[in-house]
């Protein structure tokens, strides 16, 4: 059967970059963003956060980022009639961002050609399970508990055109305990998220891997 639908070329990882300039996109508390800055300050992650913005003007993390001295663009400055993705990628381009980190960013992004393969997302489950539309924050942990699985964790993946379907870069797992609540599971998964995102940034910036279809392999 033939289709006239335009096919999107497969994602490719970018070339190595010694000290990546990071753009970080948030929607909520900014804990993931501040953890990245903590890792940089501790000398464990050789990177620089050069641009931060959010999908919503009331994201608490924006104030926390400003307090920390990070460069923040106010989402309220988006002109009416300009799409969120167009506005966000214009800002990231202006700041010559190498890698874009979706750190609890809750909107679907339309990723332009010059940023394909450079956008990383962290998700608090072991994808491909418990991902997709409606799966964010504690909703993920509640779905995990209701399913009865005994292991959960987090995934850092390259963002493609859809929610949570891009090639997987890093996964970390942890047990699901029989007396867990969504909050206790969230805390255990977060302990894994703290190192998974920096690991994925180092992996992509290192330039020593490539994608073979969806599979990450040594270059
Ligand atoms: N092009 C891509 N954009 C985004 C990706 C991606 O992989 N490709 N990942 C998401 C992050 N994500 C989980 O990791 C996620 C975020 C939000 C939702 C969701 O259902 N959102 C609601 C709106 C919620 C709100 O604004 O409060 C919705 O779309 O109706 C699902 C998954 C980031 N973007
Ligand atoms: N589907 C995306 C998703 O659920 N992301 C999750 O939201 C939290 C963001 O917290 P923060 O806003 O305090 O950094 C993080 O746990 C992240 O994995």
Structure summary:
This protein is an alpha/beta fold. The chain contains 5 helices and 8 strands, in the order E-H-E-H-H-E-E-H-E-E-H-E-E. The radius of gyration is 17 Å and the shape is globular.
This entry's quaternary arrangement is: single chain
- CATH architecture grouping of the domain at 17-116: 3-Layer(aba) Sandwich
Structural Rg: 17 Å
Main sheet strand line-up: 2-1-3-4-5-6
Summarize the SSE layout with pairings:
Blueprint: E1 21-26, H1 31-41, E2 48-54, H2 60-67, H3 84-94, E3 99-102, E4 119-123, H4 138-147, E5 151-158, E6 168-175, H5 182-206, E7 209-212, E8 215-218
Parallel strand pairs: 1-2, 1-3, 3-4
Antiparallel strand pairs: 4-5, 5-6, 7-8
Helix pairs in contact: 1-5, 4-5
Describe it for me?
The mean pLDDT is 96. The relative contact order is 0.17. The chain is globular. Strands 2-1-3-4-5-6 form a six-stranded mixed sheet, with helices on both faces. It has a two-stranded antiparallel sheet with strand order 7-8. It has helices at residues 31-41, 60-67, 84-94, 138-147, 182-206; strands at residues 21-26, 48-54, 99-102, 119-123, 151-158, 168-175, 209-212, 215-218. It is of the alpha/beta class. It has a domain at 17-116: 3-Layer(aba) Sandwich (Rossmann fold), CATH 3.40.50.170. The N and C termini lie far apart (35 Å). Strand 7 and strand 8 form a beta hairpin. Glycinamide ribonucleotide (GAR) is lined by residues 26, 28-32, 61, 103-104, 122-124, 135-137, 140, 193. Catalyzes the transfer of a formyl group from 10-formyltetrahydrofolate to 5-phospho-ribosyl-glycinamide (GAR), producing 5-phospho-ribosyl-N-formylglycinamide (FGAR) and tetrahydrofolate. Keywords: Purine biosynthesis, Transferase. InterPro entries: Formyl_transf_N, Formyl_transf_N_sf, GART, GART_AS.
